[in-house]
Amino acid sequence: MAQVTISLPQANIQGRTDYIQSFTGGQYSFTLIALLPTISTRAINSTSFVSTTGGGTVPLNVAHLKLEKINNLSLLGSSNDVILSTTNQILISSLATVSLSAGPVIINSRFVTANQTWVAGIYKTTLSLTASGILGGTITPASQDFSIDVPGFISPPASIGTTSILVNDLSYYRAANGINVNSVIPLSTTVPYIPSIKSGNTQFSFSSNSAFNTTPVTPVSTVNTTLTGIANATSAALSTTDQSLTNTAGIAVPTNNNQTLTYTYNIGLNQLKTNFIQAGTYSVPLTYSWNKLSSAYPSGSLQAQANGNLSVVVSDLGEIVANQQTVNLAFATANDYKNGVNLNMPAHLKVSKTTPYNLYVRATSTSFTAGANSIPLNVLRIGPMAGQSGMNTITLSTTAQQLIQNADPVIDRNLNILYSIPASATGMLLNKPAGAYSANIIFSFVAP
Q1: How many whole angstroms separate alpha carbon 291 and alpha carbon 286?
Q2: How far is CA 36 from CA 24, 41, 70, 73, 241, in A?
Q3: What is the pLDDT of residues 227-254, one digit of tens each?
């Protein structure tokens, strides 16, 4: 049996545009004279195009047929555009006897790709062309295989670009799930596939315009990737080894062949606080891959790839929280004046800073005051409680004094503070009227 195969181009499937191709439907002939012949067509033996390479069908009505010419006589202007079905459809009728001559029958076929999900394969029906009427002649062969060849392809963007995780608020370091960001990648395909991802390096490269004491060494495995909204999705830590993002069932050919994949990148809370507390940009190149399921048509492997980058951008963030707003040093007994007074304030301050930092303290007034009475600021010492490391003891004044110098970035560091008035300074409290003497104290990262 004769055969006609129409190969649908990838561009028409992706663009959802009609594809037009002409083919020879047979040879028209007659014995003596053809009188007003009618030429018709229909599909026989099947109610749809049936896959010969796997399961599935394509409806007959994707094919529109029109008689283009017989021999050298153009007939497009007078031919009907018919939708292929199992019912006989008239392409043309009542041809003038003098105009018709024997020769090849050329059919103009138009395939409507929109509203059809095309799965790679070869789909076949049997096409019948007949001539009827008073001595209408014949078309040979009377039928032939009529096939659609749907190519296998996976088509991502040429380049993915850079996906940026912006750590621009300290709240991310306190959120139970850390921080997430989505990257949407469009994809067109005619085959089921498994997506995967890998990094170009085992560690992030680091750059910064902010100060840093040491260059962070951050493994790419601190970032997890998954596909949001995909039933078969799995999660994988970034690696230089290709990591599949679905189970072996993969992702089916999407409706109308086009879809968007939402890649979700997550840095968990512990990983964020451990590996991304220095302000700067952490970058790594990524390779995205999409591999056809081995069981799907066509045989052999089919892979598409695209390159992109992942950046984690940590802003210069800082915060000082005083967990207790009021500090009271009470002189209630003679021994207090003799020995001085100490007050431990556990977790008094909570400090967060994404660059190396200094911590300063100062008073906003020139003395402790109670109405018109005053006590000099320098009676008070501020320093570390026992066991608190990395902190100096200072004497309070209106000039900013440095408690901590060039400490590494930190998130939610609790500082245990000791407030004291030593015995050597209690003489400045003598002969002062009883009362509560107060001053405002400011802790800051910068000495004003």
Answers
A1: 16
A2: 22, 17, 14, 15, 71
A3: 999 999 999 999 999 999 999 999 999 9
